[in-house]
Amino acid sequence: MSAPLLCTGRYALRPYYLEKIGRRIYSIEELCYCIVQNAYMIDTDSFDMDLIDWIEMELGLKKLADELRTMVVHKCSAASFFGMIIDYVGYTTKEDYDKTVDILRGNAGMDVYEKRMARAEFLMKQGHVSQAFDEYETILKNMPDLDVNVKARIEHNEGVLYAHLFMYDRAGEMFLKAYEDGGDEESYMCYLASKRMTMTEREYITFVGENKDARNLSLRLEQRMDEANDLYDSSSANIKLRSLELYRSGAKMTEYYEEVERLTQDMKTEYRDLVK
């Protein structure tokens, strides 16, 4: 559990609407949260005197507001402006602060499409599956004339997201689309892996034998699967399962069922967090 955060300033009676993020905020901590979570969507257009006035009048943070006004007058960057707010509040760790500021610096010169792509990939890497899906679908819906290679990249990443949800059939469909659109061998490798996960051994061998691309890549896929198995053998998840076997073999059935229940609940919670 993380340490409690001492709130700064007061709770606003009148919320401020962050247009680019589409969210109303009532405290400086909420503002910091939105900055950290949506750094890829933020640039110099995201701050103005209205925000600074709100910080002073609604939150009672006059000193911070005065410093921010000075920064605006001197045409500071978004990284400096929002970095000042996060640092003033002491909202996050130094590591997350540095990461957020680096993202804000990198936003300079990026268009809306590039920011959404960067945000979607960031969310995917962080395990925020549902939010990443939303970003990718927004891009596909609002930018129909996407370059075919960009479209293939989105389809590949959506395949990865479906695989995280154990929806291997749907993942395979997206990987195949990505391969057909972009021709990237990695996408076909992932498509082949999805087939391996959903077919019986006999069906998979037949499929590989009937498809030239599959034959060429099947040995490389098996090598990757062996490497993944080696990693799993040394993982904490496998260690927990081996401990269960010790309980069972030692006839400690009460401890065995208690541990099974605990691990099952942990897995359910983790899966719900992925899809919510």
Structure description:
By secondary structure, this protein is mainly α. The protein folds into 3 domains: 1-110, no CATH class; 111-234, Tetratricopeptide repeat domain (Serine Threonine Protein Phosphatase 5, Tetratricopeptide repeat, Alpha Horseshoe); 238-275. The chain is 72% helix and 2% strand. Strands 1-2 form a two-stranded antiparallel ribbon. A hairpin with a 4-residue loop joins β1 and β2. The longest helix has 23 residues, at 253-275. The protein is flat and about 70 Å long. The model has no long low-confidence stretch (mean pLDDT 83).
How much strand content do the residues show? under 5%
Q: Sketch the topology as an H/E string, one letter per element.
A: EEHHHHHHHHHHHHHH
Overall CATH architecture of the largest domain: Alpha Horseshoe
What is the helix content? over 70%
> Strand arrangement, largest sheet?
1-2
Low-confidence stretches: none
Structure described in brief:
This protein is mainly α.
Features:
276 residues; 14 helices; two-stranded antiparallel sheet; Serine Threonine Protein Phosphatase 5, Tetratricopeptide repeat; mainly alpha
Show the helix and strand layout:
Blueprint: E1 16-18, E2 23-25, H1 28-37, H2 49-57, H3 62-73, H4 78-89, H5 94-106, H6 112-125, H7 129-142, H8 148-164, H9 168-182, H10 185-198, H11 201-210, H12 212-233, H13 236-249, H14 253-275
Helix pairs in contact: 1-4, 2-3, 3-4, 4-5, 6-7, 7-8, 8-9, 9-10, 10-12, 11-12, 13-14
